[in-house]
């Protein structure tokens, strides 16, 4: 259920007029009109103002703002302010303060300072949300609810006494019998057999490694506790204001590890995602594209909302680089190209005080005489021209496997190499596909993937039997699967699948691995036919698969680095190392084999995405780029193009099909 209003593409952001004298509202409303802002998020961190003393709810100050915005035609995404419990609440219920894995109870003064399992927090949440929902029931300005803020970031796991109590309840419900838990956790290792649920603690800091199966379950449990806190609010809001969509904003790719978004997305009426550039990272627009594709994928391809990004610099990175001219526009339109029906910012007006005073806003400290404000106004005009795209879809022929449980398990302690991280391989494959101008969906390995020509599994370390069977069926039915090393190694309890690696995928890949040979830091090996590789080497024995390329040097010289296994109507490929430069070639081989169509001969600084019959061309490079094979009308300047379009350096052109 997508919010009915505003029409077209929503434009605006977090709005915090409570930080300013009352008069600012009039000025802001005028500026919002100038820029075409049509949606703002209100009240995100305003618990202390909404409930200044226990049980005393004061919404008068907010009514004034909501009414004024409504009058001005700006719709409201009203937040529940539970991400910032007030000082009086913490003083009265100090037991809600979260405890870190190391045993430190955090203090008041920041935000996210309450544990999602703490009864006092849940009770106060329910009372406040009920009061808020009752107060704004039927208010025409409120078009959607924004619950909390970025669950799990930065508070992923809590180790307080309430969490431990809830954890034991969760374990009992999950395993029922303590012997089942002992078996799942491999408790005979290091003599950890439990005889009573009360003996089980959270996997808190220990001077050696804590049972990995216990930690994996704690990650699942902790994420679920946040979801319960969310669902408590959502259910109340649905009851009080039926028909008004409820969401919470995800923390994009930067901070998304602790939240399993496949599970979260099912709980939301509309998926909302935040994304912030890692300012110093070269080509950080590729990470942006990944974040947007992931948001669209967890939304099941449905339109989603970019709930936050920044107009310029953020303030929480080591060096907070300002966006270059045109960069904010490219970023915004890239999100729209990849399925977002909104472009929203943190925040409308930059704050004068507090922790985020050096964070950019749509209205910067420099005011409306700035280039930044001019870009904001121009973006508003651009987005109005894209109104017709609302609700349209992005289709992909290629999917990448992304599973949070595998992410968690892969990054627990004592793996064969510290260079094995979830994002390292994920980013490498995504980037190579992006540079090949291939738009991808992300998929969970247990879901229906039969519609994709190619599925790529970058280091899918944890793979259940059922998911492995799903991949097997996919290939047999004619699919093309490319698997990278350290995949299919363990089951859902971080227990190694029986026999030689990769236990869950041996048959499908037609090979077995005798021994891992992780490489030293900075060590490279060469591949037969040219190219080097890093991080990983291993001894592959084909058993049905054929070697496509061998290692030329290193511990596995003369043995396969890339294999191919024709199975049923499809093909399974296996890449046993991390090519330094050749990943694109490997992918191109698989894409060609599968007949995946993509533009050829374009520089890899040009982003090309199709949405709802429109072609988005985003030039991230310093040279003009001519794209052949495009006919239609340029949405922004109305120019007709017959067969080719030239995109200026840094520019974005959107071509609409000729009716
Ligand atoms: C987000 C958060 C916002 C704001 C922003 C700054 O993670 O949701 O409230 O802090 O970061 O970049």
Automatic annotation (TrEMBL):
Positions annotated to bind Zn(2+): 115, 158, 160
Record EC number: 3.2.1.23
Residue ranges occupied by any Beta-galactosidase C-terminal domain in the UniProt entry: 607-655
Catalysis: reaction(s): Hydrolysis of terminal non-reducing beta-D-galactose residues in beta-D-galactosides
Domain Glycoside hydrolase family 42 N-terminal: 14-386
Pfam annotation, one family: Glyco_hydro_42M
Stored InterPro entries: Beta_galactosidase_C, Beta_galactosidase_Trimer, Class_I_gatase-like, GH, Glyco_hydro_42, Glyco_hydro_42_N, Glyco_hydro_b
Keywords: Glycosidase, Hydrolase, Metal-binding, Zinc
Domain Beta-galactosidase trimerisation, residue spans: 396-596
Domain of life of the organism encoding this protein: Bacteria
GO BP terms in the entry: galactose metabolic process
A single MF term (Gene Ontology): beta-galactosidase activity
Active-site residue numbers: 150, 308
Binding residues for substrate: 111, 149, 316
Keyword Cell division among UniProt keywords: no
One cellular component term from this protein's GO annotations in UniProt: beta-galactosidase complex
Family: Belongs to the glycosyl hydrolase 42 family.
Name listed for the protein in its UniProt record: Beta-galactosidase
Source species taxonomy: Bacteria, Bacillati, Actinomycetota, Actinomycetes, Streptosporangiales
